[in-house]
Design brief:
This protein has two domains: 150 residues, D-Maltodextrin-Binding Protein, domain 2 (3-Layer(aba) Sandwich), CATH 3.40.190.10; 100 residues, Periplasmic binding protein-like II (D-Maltodextrin-Binding Protein, domain 2, 3-Layer(aba) Sandwich). The chain is 34% helix and 28% strand. The strands form two sheets. Strands 1, 5, 6, 7, 8, 9, 10, 11 and 12 form a nine-stranded mixed sheet that branches. A three-stranded antiparallel sheet has the order 2-3-4, covered by helices on one side. Strand 2 and strand 3 form a beta hairpin.
């Protein structure tokens, strides 16, 4: 159902255009991934994007692609917003503003039984798979590796991959020692394949809807999310994909100060 208060809060350019182009990656089930037809992106984030469009009275277009193409695409005006489990880091807030919509952590996955007895504090000198351009790739793993070096231990070797299938296969083939990805993505992979297990989920924090800095989308997005929460649709979407525990109630506006 359209929320007129949310519509009224939209920037005139988007309200007059009548469409909302939302981008996300395709690599992280159940959050956002390719359906069996090979063309449709499904998951939590597409469902959130479509529900937001309905509340805002806009036609929503999902434009999915590589994670590391999201910010350049928004800067170039190809996309209005990103709904892709993006953390509002200091670096990202230099070019984007954000509204929180969910929370998750980073999950460490290992072979069943954890034969090497790995955990968040025992990855020094190990080969760890991450998704290219993800927060684990750009922030979490480099920070862990820096701690290793500061303690006189070997650095962590980061192995980057375009989608979750590749590091999962690399782990089972013993080409890497662990994977470090979004917790919900890891949980889904564990459930689907049975080829790994989760040994830790760390740094649980909000993830956000990102859009071009200064685009003034926060009031409309916040109102739309509150509307979806009140109607129950927000929780229904998360529960549908088995990630209901990540629901939040404070749809905060994040921007660099």
């Amino acid at each position: 159902m359209v929320d007129q208060a949310a519509v009224a809060a939209l920037p005139p350019a988007i309200r007059d255009k009548g469409t909302l182009v939302v981008t996300m990656s395709q690599s992280s089930p159940p959050l956002h991934f390719m359906a069996a037809d090979g063309t449709t992106t499904i998951g939590v984030d597409p469902d959130i994007a479509l529900a937001l469009g309905q509340v805002l009275g806009l036609k929503t277009t999902i434009a999915s692609g590589p994670f590391d193409g999201i910010i350049p695409g928004i800067q170039a005006g190809k996309y209005d917003a990103a709904i892709s489990q993006m953390s509002p880091s200091t670096v990202r807030m230099k070019v984007l503003d954000f509204v929180d919509y969910y929370q998750s952590g980073s999950g460490i996955g290992v072979l069943p039984g954890n034969p090497e007895k790995l955990g968040v504090d025992s990855l020094c000198g190990k080969r760890v798979g991450v998704l290219k351009g993800s927060f684990q790739d750009l922030k979490r793993l480099p920070d862990l590796s820096a701690k290793c070096v500061a303690a006189g231990k070997p650095a962590i070797t980061a192995m980057t991959y375009a989608d979750m299938q590749a590091p999962s296969l690399a782990l089972t083939a013993h080409r890497i020692d662990a994977v470090y990805v979004d917790g919900p993505t890891l949980g889904y992979e564990v459930k689907q394949t049975g080829q790994m297990e989760t040994v830790a989920e760390t740094n649980v924090s909000p993830v956000s809807i990102g859009y071009k800095k200064g685009a003034d989308l926060a009031p409309a997005i916040q109102q739309a999310l509150k509307s979806l929460e009140k109607s129950g649709v927000y929780q229904q979407i998360l529960d549908k994909w088995g990630v209901g525990s990540g629901a939040i109630t404070d749809f905060a506006f994040d921007k660099a100060q």
